[in-house]
Design brief:
Blueprint (H helix, E strand, L loop, with lengths): L3 E9 L4 H18 L5 E6 L5 E8 L2 H8 L2 H13 E9 L6
Antiparallel strand pairs: 1-3, 1-4, 2-3
Helix pairs in contact: 1-3
């Protein structure tokens, strides 16, 4: 199976930025400590007000599913979702094949 990479962009509710950042930092620490197979997992602050993104890359679909079903994701995601204004946009990225 091929690598799964995507970026998800979201807007955070006014006044909830610190709650969002705290939850994202907690999730990032859990992923780094418990998911050694993850290629890349990092949140970013975008240049537009209250806009953020997460870039995630997994070597295969199996590890993406393991991440999506992890207990740390289940514990932290509700806090992240509570901070998000609306929903998020996920854009999948495919590597060049030369």
């Amino acid at each position: 199976m091929s690598r799964i990479t995507f970026i998800s962009r979201m807007t955070v509710k006014p006044g909830r930025e610190q709650d969002f950042v705290d939850a994202c930092n907690e999730l990032t620490a859990k992923v780094r400590a418990n998911e050694p197979g993850v290629i890349y997992f990092e949140f970013f602050k975008l240049r537009e007000p209250r806009r953020y993104a997460v870039l995630e890359s997994f070597p295969n679909e199996e590890l993406e599913h393991a991440h999506m079903n992890s207990p740390w994701l289940a514990a932290v995601v509700p806090r992240i979702v509570d901070c998000v204004d609306g929903t998020w946009e996920r854009e999948y990225l495919d590597p060049f094949t030369a």
